[in-house]
Amino acid sequence: MKEEHYFPNVPHNYPLCLNRQCPKASTCLRQLVEQEVADNVEYWVIISPKYQAKLKGACPHYRSSKKVQYAKGCINILDNLPHRQRQHAMSGLVEYFSRRTYYRVRKGERLLSPAEQRDVQKIFKQCGATGKQEFDAYVEDYEW
């Protein structure tokens, strides 16, 4: 029996792919989600097959079905910094994300992708933090 909710957290209006002949179809989230879409879904957003037919080489819409590690929250990192370093780090993070997003990231309401984690680590190092800074928690999910 086909499992309908294999990908329960698919973003709203996530573009799907209909190209089952693609050499990377078996590992592409866009293709795998398309195969799992329930029969009662009224409409989908798809990547145009005409556009795909013109592609030569690597598909710019490919998304690996391998899960990645997202970071959740950085309150502990900030709490372990001396006051002056913490102030510089907070300023750097607000500049990088915006004030509102910074607070959501700090509390763990917004997850950090692997690339964002690296950028945040750089900000902490620029502020004088030493050693590896561990985020509050880690979660594995697809990189949509």
Q: How would you describe this protein?
A:
By secondary structure, this protein is mainly alpha-helical. The chain folds into 2 domains: 8-66, no CATH class; 68-141. The chain has helices spanning 29-36, 49-54, 75-79, 83-97, 99-107, 114-126, and strands at 68-72, 137-141. Helix 4 crosses helix 5 and helix 4 (83-97) packs antiparallel against helix 6 (114-126). The longest helix is centred in the middle third of the chain and has 15 residues, at 83-97. It starts with 28 loop residues before the first helix and ends with a strand.
Give a brief rundown of this model:
This protein is mainly α and 144 residues long. It is built from six helices and two strands.
Percent helix range: 25-40%
Q: Count all strands and give the number.
A: 2
If you average the pLDDT, what whole number results? 90
Shape: elongated
State the end-to-end CA separation: 26 Å
Structural category is mainly alpha
Portion of residues in beta strands equals 5-15%
Query: What's the tally of helices?
Result: 6
